[in-house]
Amino acid sequence: MNQNSVQIPQGEEIIYVEMTVKEALALTGAKFTMNQKLETDAIKKVKQRLEDKLLHANH
User: Fold this and answer.
1) 57: nearest Cα among 15, 18, 3, 19
2) What highest taxon heads this organism's lineage (predicted)?
3) What is each CA distance from 33 to 4, 28, 40, in whole angstroms?
4) 47 exposure class (CB count in 10 Å sphere: 0-12, 13-18, 19+)
5) pLDDT value of position 58
6) How far apart are CA 56 and CA 46, in angstroms?
7) How is residue 55 annotated by DSSP?
8) 27 touches 42 (CB < 8 A)
9) Confidence at residue 54, expressed as pLDDT on a 0 to 100 scale
10) Which 8-state DSSP code applies to residue 58?
11) pLDDT of res. 33
12) How far apart are CA 33 and CA 39, in angstroms?
C-alpha cells in the first residue's frame, strides 16, 4: 500500500456543518480584520463535526 494513501471507510459520506456565511468566506481565505476569530471558529466547527461523525461511526 502506498504510504501516502489513507483509507477512510466513510470517506464518501456527506456531512453537514452549520456555519455563517462569514465563517464560510473566512475558510476561503477572506480576511475579516474586525473579527479574526471567524476562520478559527469555522475550522473548529468542521473539525468537531468530523470528529462526531468518525467517533459515532465506530460505535
Assistant:
1) 15
2) Bacteria
3) 37, 15, 13
4) exposed
5) 61
6) 15
7) H
8) yes
9) 85
10) T
11) 92
12) 11
Per-residue tens of pLDDT for the chain, all 59 residues:
455 687 877 788 899 999 999 999 999 999 999 998 999 999 999 999 999 988 886 65
DSSP 8-state code for residue 35: -
Residue with cell 489513507: 6
Rounded CA-CA distance 32/39 in Å is 9
* 8-state DSSP, 59: -
How far apart are the C-alpha atoms of 38 and 25, rounded to whole Å?
9
